[in-house]
Amino acid sequence: MKFLLIEDNKELANAITTRLLLDGHVVDHAMSKTDGLAFAETGEYDLILLDIMLPDGDGREFLGHHRAGHKDTPIIVLTARSQVSDRISVLDLGADDYVTKPFDHAELQARCRAVLRRRAGSSQNIIKLADVEFNPVAGHLSLGGSTIALRNRELRLLELLINSPGHIFSKQKLFDRLFSIDDDVSENAIEVYIGRLRKHLEHSRLTITTLRGLGYRLDEQ
What we know:
Layout: E1 2-6, H1 10-22, E2 26-30, H2 33-42, E3 47-51, E4 53-54, E5 57-58, H3 59-68, E6 75-79, H4 84-92, E7 97-100, H5 105-119, E8 127-129, E9 132-135, E10 140-143, E11 146-149, H6 152-162, H7 171-178, H8 188-201, E12 206-211, E13 215-220
Parallel strand pairs: 1-2, 1-3, 3-6, 6-7
Antiparallel strand pairs: 4-5, 8-9, 9-10, 10-11, 12-13
């Protein structure tokens, strides 16, 4: 998954980013409302983590602007305000959840998973397609009674494809979802990860089809 973190506290932002990276996610970090809006306008994210107290404005202004643009990216608000009225205000503005500072990072990770499951219309971690069972939280797929552990970007690539079978993903689209703006890699890295996934799926009824000039698609045989 690709996250946008809007948080001006460098120490907290580094801690959150480190935990998300260890989970195999991609993170873009903005330190202000202005930068956050620029990221959100030009990128595509699975989840936004939004601080309320920002140096150039209130995070609720970002939230209102984002929802006014009819964007439905899930947003979890990070707030030091514990008053019920404050929490109600961000939910009414369109936040999907909130976490009160200071928080346990395990709780934040769990809330992220819960929000993403709700948006996917599922309360389960297991995704089943054809003869494959995929657990993005545990980081493995099951096939024919055996379990295959996936590396981080293999995991996130399969998560993208298996959640949208039959959908064509361009190489650029996959690149944008798997890597942050700070990663020094070329688009050819996508071919490497596609090749690895194909090897993992070679005995299944799922296949990754290359559509020349268009991209890749996960098909069920």
